[in-house]
Amino acid sequence: MRKLFMVIVIVLLISGCVKEKDATSETKGEPDQTLEQENETEATDTAQDEEEGDAEKATSELGDLEVKLSGEAIIEEDQIRIEGESNLLPGSSIYSSGVTDGGFASSTFIDTAEVQEDGSFSFEFSGISTSTTVKLNLYTNNQTEEHYGENLEKATGPQVYVTDTHGAFEVKAEFYIDVDQPMPYTIPIEIPQWKEKPDDYGEPEVWMEADVDSDHRYLYFKGKSNLVEGTKVGGNLLKASGIIDAFSFGFTRVNPDGTFELRVPYHKLQKGMYMPIRFEPKNNSWEDVLNTYGEHGEKLKGELVEEDGEDQYVELIVEIDAPDFDPPKDVGLTVEDEEVKIQMPDDLLFDFDESTLKADAKETLNDVMKDLQKLDENTEIQINGHTDNVGDSDYNLNLSKERAEAVWAYLEKSGDVTGLDVQIEGFGDTKPIASNKEEDGQERNRRVEIVINPK
């Protein structure tokens, strides 16, 4: 019995030790788990603190005299939305307006929005069919005049601009809606970053320089000068003969640092084309500009100064680099980097709803063929058919391909172009170059393109 008692005691002692060890192990595991939970809690608290800090910082900046307007514009077929951010005083108003490519005011964009407690604001507009520059202005009222000055003269920052009246300023943001871009798309509304003004900024001896680039719709002139802010510059694109190229014009105003950006639409580039970028005081009514250069430009000096009776003006000639092609009348020629597009409206080549070439089309294609025969052997080209969006999509797709094939069949049979690397495609209504909302846009979209050196 005694031996049995001793065995039982030993078993109980061992069992107790095991339980104590397990309990100890569990107790040792608890600090690790607690530490992990504490780390997660601290990370969450840190993120919340950062968000709250950002919110507090944004709130603390509201009403800062260095004003900021930004956000984005969402462009859709039937609606345009602006989601804006600012550090303007809550309760302030933002006034919106728009000017079309043709220089006409757009009633679509006339509206106001109130700045909310967090500095945000928003607009909603109906869709548009014409490319438009949209401007957002701080609207002056008793509240803004008291805070930013009667003429906004207390406001600072890169979004404060001079106006046509001396001593009066505007706070604005601008962006450009291109209706020829595939929709939907988003445009960032950004705060500009101006460079330092030239040392001779505002001097009567004026200089200008500009570089030009292009895509398949516009010529882009990026320039710099010592002209004062608000000076109006621009002009008409001219052919080598000096004749104006119809509908190819543009005007803009000089930025606070003397730079300017000018966008000019075009249809056909030709050898010898040039762009005279002019500043004509007689066509500029801004007080600061006229005070600087004279109402008739009589204070102007320098190599770029020209005379017109009693008036003086500044003119910078920018030559346009164009391919050595001579497309026939009504056939477009556009360039983007090394890619060249010869654009032929469908009514030059085909009768309505047909894919058989008209008799007159052969004369047009013969002229186009002369340019294609100048190309090096194995040059890659694409012949692409396009339609508007009227009718059945599948039918339009098939029609566009048949038309592209008809063009190539004639070129291949009639000229020495067999050494080219040719691809033929029909795109139907999937690649418009203009809005299909109006007849003019539909007409532009119905075309056959020959693309040389496609991207």
TrEMBL record:
Transmembrane segments: none
Residue ranges with Acidic residues bias: 33-54
Organism annotation: Oceanobacillus jordanicus
Gene Ontology cellular component list: cell outer membrane
Superkingdom per UniProt: Bacteria
Major location category of this protein: membrane
Segments for region (Disordered): 21-63, 433-455
Protein name: OmpA family protein
Source taxonomy: Bacteria, Bacillati, Bacillota, Bacilli, Bacillales
Alphabetized UniProt keyword annotations: Cell outer membrane, Membrane
Domain OmpA-like: 337-455
Keyword Membrane: yes
Keyword Membrane: yes
Matches recorded under InterPro entries: Bact_OuterMem_StrucFunc, OMP_bac, OmpA-like, OmpA-like_sf
Subcellular location: Cell outer membrane
Compositional bias of kind Basic and acidic residues: 21-31, 436-449
